[in-house]
Amino acid sequence: MAFHDGLTTTQQILLAIVCFPLLPFYLCYLSQVEEGKVQATVRQPRSTIVTGETRYYEQQSAVASEPDQAYPWDKSSLKSMPIDLQQFKKLDAFASRVNVTSSVKDLVRVLLQEAHSDLEKLRAIWMWICCHIEYDVKGYHDKTNRSCKPIDVLRSGKSVCAGYAGLIEQMCSIAGIQCKQLSGYSKGHGYKPGHVFRGDTDHAWNAVFLHGRWHLLDSTWGSGIVDDSCTKFTFRYDEFYFLTHPALFITDHFPEDHEWQLLKPRLTLQQFERNIRFRSEFYAHGLVAATPATTAIQTENGKATIFVESRSPALFLFKFNEAEENCLMTLQRNGMNLEVYPQQTGTHSLKIYSKLSKDTKESYSHVLEYSLTCSSVDKSIRLPKGLIQPVGPSWLTEQAGILKALPSGPIIHTDDGRCVITFTRTKDLHFFATLQSNNSRVPEDMMRRHVWKTCQGNQAELKVHLPHAGHFALLIWANKTSDSDTHQCALSYLLSCPNKSVTWPVFPQRFANWEDNFELVAPLAGVLPANCQVQFKLKLPGIVQANVDCGGKTLPLTLSKAGFWEGACNTSGGEKVGVTISKGADNFIWSLLEYKVETR
User: Fold this and answer.
1) What is the pTM of this model?
2) Residues contacting residue 185 through CB under 8 Å, at least 6 positions apart
3) Is 161 a catalytic residue?
4) Which of 27-36, 100-109, 203-212 is least confident?
């Protein structure tokens, strides 16, 4: 029963009058109590430690009770909290110029002159470390020749990962930011797909508490890179490792305390080992996912397929056992598809490189690596060494001036050895085609004559008659008049013909007077049968006269109402048959085409 329940009405009124002035103080007291409860749920208990330089706080090992982030990644943001990097432009420039090595406390005091919020304070500390501390490659190889104490790291300007993490932890503590040094396994220097992590941990990084939750960062990897032998360090800032989304951080960082994955559900060490490593460049180039997502893959019936998804068009390269062979790559606007056809059983290395489509002059960056096991070889596929990647029509061929190309796929299967490719070309686009095959005895100049080019306005057509069965690379080289004289491969196809009875002859030899808008209907074969009547039919706009020369005889062709020059000649008595034209009233004769006649 409450105290006032035993008083009369008059006594209760008098009590209220006396106590009313104390009400604001009572409410203030309640507010402080409630605030203390809130703080207890946000801040972890911490114990003060006094060092020779300054006072900082040792955080408790348990992760705060904020909800973990979902795994797998939802492909939305690379960061664990919304960040506008433009707002850091001025602060980054300031932090990178600060040059204080007297003490960690003095350094933090100077950095905080331009940083106000906890996020800005952390950013200034992060940027300073990434710009001023280099990786100690000598200390990496000789533990007796290195120190990870924050003051030693500051004054020497170098350290290994534990020194980076220790320095950022102390600087954050001085700045009033909760920070913890984490240790675990990493897929960094020396990592190879399939590696099994056992024994002591090999890397250190940090977790910081901002805006009510924990976030991850790795200033060692944010500062630069080492070479393969870890004997040379190069400063190369990497934004990716600042407040990285935990679902991305876990691809190459596995904490010893699994709670610090900051993920739900958490991964096991075995899952970490199986999952492929997505390098920071993978996300920097707008790539978002890869299938399979496991580092070790196997062929099925001699073939393995990898798909890399991107937010926008990107360019790719591959290295299969360090060579650009045995793979068929096709581009899409949202990524790349790679078919791998190993020619030997066993375990192989597959590396994938990429770059942004707009960065045509930049070099490719290594983004993925697989270990591929092949148990059987698909002998039906033999990719020509001259096949230029990517294969088949794509946004890249459109960019080069070839539109609406058909067939739309990368492989053309033909049983009779013949096929037709059509496309629309942009204005002032010049092109030609070449044909290549492994182990073919057909000379290169004769191989080109197995492709016949016809243009009608902006519509282009290529007829292909293969000389024999096998796999061929059809390459279309293009050049815009505004570009240099160099032609680039704008489109390539893989042609496959299993029919061993195929033996198509070459097309007739064309001379320089053959124009793009000319059309040959018949005969298409460049080798004519002997002692036979052969019909000729050509469309030659702007020509005043066309003739066929055979065995010393000249036979004029007749212009039909449909606009075709037509006629016939007998191939007896000659080894060659030529088509000549006259363009004007001067009756000057120009050689246009030449055929050979079979010998008996």
Assistant:
1) 0.83
2) 197, 201, 202, 203, 253, 254, 256, 269, 272
3) yes
4) 27-36
